[in-house]
Every structure is written in structure tokens, then in C-alpha cells.
């Protein structure tokens, strides 16, 4: 569906420039997320990589990035370093996967936004007098507008169906992780190695907040773009058109009143208000944990 949007534009039009601009922005965001996730994962495991562990001491547990059972005994530095290297690669790959997953979601959302901007451009560039030149021109123009609007709605619904329950999982897990990481940061203030623990958790805490913000921002972004379509159709100077022609705009206005939206499990609408609720819930759970400490 996104490939069709690229194919239908001419090589010099404003529609192509708008779509290309959002594609470049998506590329920059994707690169930024990958770099940020890589730095966060690296900082989180640096202390383990640099630790001088004694593999011959059976009374203490070896510091590992991921606790798991191995079919062999780690009794040499070579084996220990090999295990650490393998785990580090696994951690980096997982962080990249999370970054690309969020970047794909944001890229699809920005693409929908670019197509809404294209639709708005068509509505503002063509005036009511231009539409009234001939009946054929009016039919062609309105057909173009309605088809584009329907494609935008279909793509938005596809994103909603794909990410709805994923967003619900993220909604719950991020709330718990923000609370847990906040608890670790607060309790680490009194420990001897406070700086090390805070640095390990702070970037991870930031990443978790950023992930929640991306989902909520995308929902808010689509909602605002949906409202803009209705406003543009209403400001189309329909009052200068023939009555039988202006009625067609009512269908666009009425359809745009059913806003494009993204939800978490078909229950909560993703918005900046939703992000605020996540932070409030995390803060409440953190207060309970600190009181039980």
C-alpha cells in the first residue's frame, strides 16, 4: 500500500516532495533509535564486561549479562570471555530489534501523516471556482480526493490491527519497567556504587520512557491529522459551489469526524494523555514500593 503511494506521484509534484521529506525524517529517527539503543545496551553491560571475575572461585556466582544454564562448566577465562561475548552480541541484536520495531511503527505513522498532508494540499490548491469549471472535472477531482482519503483510512486501520495488542503489551510492560527502574535508581542513591548503578539504569529508564512516548505520540499524531482533513474540507469554500456538488463534501467531513486512532488492545486510545497516565501509574507503584522498603 505504501509502494502504491510512491508510484502514483509524478517526479516533480509537491506530493512526492512531502512523502520524500517524511521518508527522510523516518530514516533519521530509525538511525537515532538504533544508536541510542546500542549505547544504552552497551552501557548497561559494560561493568560486567570489565569485571575481573575469578572463574576458579566456586563460592561466588559469575557475573553474567543473562542468567542461564550451560551444558558445560565455565572454569577458564577463555570460556568465560566467550560466553560474555556471545551474550553481548545477543543483547545488541535484541536492542536493535526493539529499535527497528519501534522505528517501523513510527515510519508507518509518519507515512500516513504525509498522505494526509498530500490530501490537504489537494484540497487547498484547488478552489471552488476551479471545481465548478466543468462537471467532469468536479467528478474527477472528488473521486481522487475520496479514494485518497479511503486509502489513508485503510492504511491506518491496518496499522491499528497490527499493533493494537502489541501496544497493550507495551503499555503494561513499560508501566512496570518504568516503576521498577525508578525504584532501582532511587534505592541506589544510598549504595557505595551509586554512580555505577544509576548510570546503568538511567539510560535503560530513558529508553523505556521513549518507547512508551513513541506509541502515544503516534496515536496523538494520527488523531490530529484526522481532524485536519475535516477542517480542510469545511474550509473549501463549499458555499460558492452548486448545492448538488457541495453535498459531496459533507461525506468527507462526516467521515473525518470518525477520527483515525491507534489503541492499546482496542481498549485505551493512544495519546499524550495516555502517556501521562502511564507515568502517573508508574509513580503510584513506585511510591508503594518505597513505602514497603
UniProtKB/TrEMBL annotation:
One GO location term (cellular component): plasma membrane
Membrane topology field: Multi-pass membrane protein
Keyword Glycosyltransferase: no
GO BP field: signal transduction
InterPro entries found in the cross-reference section: 7tm6_olfct_rcpt
Residue ranges of coiled coil: none
One Pfam family cited in the UniProt record for this chain: 7tm_6
Cell compartments where the protein resides: Cell membrane
Protein name as annotated: Odorant receptor 4-like
Originating species: Cardiocondyla obscurior
